[in-house]
Amino acid sequence: MSEYRIASRYAKSLLGLAVEKKVLEEVKDDMKLLLEVSSENRDLALMLKSPVIGHSKKLVVLNMIFKGKVNDMTMSFFQIVTKKQREEYLITVAKEFLHQYNTHKGIEEATITTTFSLSDSLRNEFIGIVEKITNKKVELTEKVDESLIGGFVLKIGDRQIDDSVSSKLKALRLEFTKNHYEKAF
Length: 185
Hints:
Number of helices: 8
CATH class of the largest domain: Mainly Alpha
Order of helices and strands: HHHHHHEHEEEH
Number of domains: 2
Structural class: alpha+beta
Distance between the termini: 48 Å
Strand order of the largest sheet: 2-1-3-4
Number of strands: 4
CATH topology of the largest domain: Peroxidase, domain 1
Shape: elongated
CATH architecture of the largest domain: Orthogonal Bundle
Radius of gyration: 22 Å
Strand content: 15-25%
């Protein structure tokens, strides 16, 4: 089974249980914490995926890091996933959980990539544009990529609005490679 399908199933189960137990917001914060800790500490992500380290040792490490900082249900979820020997998927499950949480709450995920950090007014303007397009609340993720040269790339779900200078230069470069004076066959 693919990693995405495994993560999707665990995330869906966790979301359903969190809604049932009325701890959805706490579990969402716990999943964000897991992603935050794993992005700041590459060793945690490597340890979870390592086939050399035993499952019981991985559970001990998870307990040391998260016990008392996360909801009891989240800790139980970590234990169940580890006992099923699926702890290598925990980070992917956390990402998928946040995606399913947003879908459950009617929040649209959007990513804006610019050459600079956005000011509050510009950020609010982009959020307003996405809200107008989707008629949903928006969770905007910002990225800085200086290779764009200027402009922006806005991704909303599976749609992309590319108004960057680099994409316009690529299109121009492609146009110049065509010879309009040769007869096309």
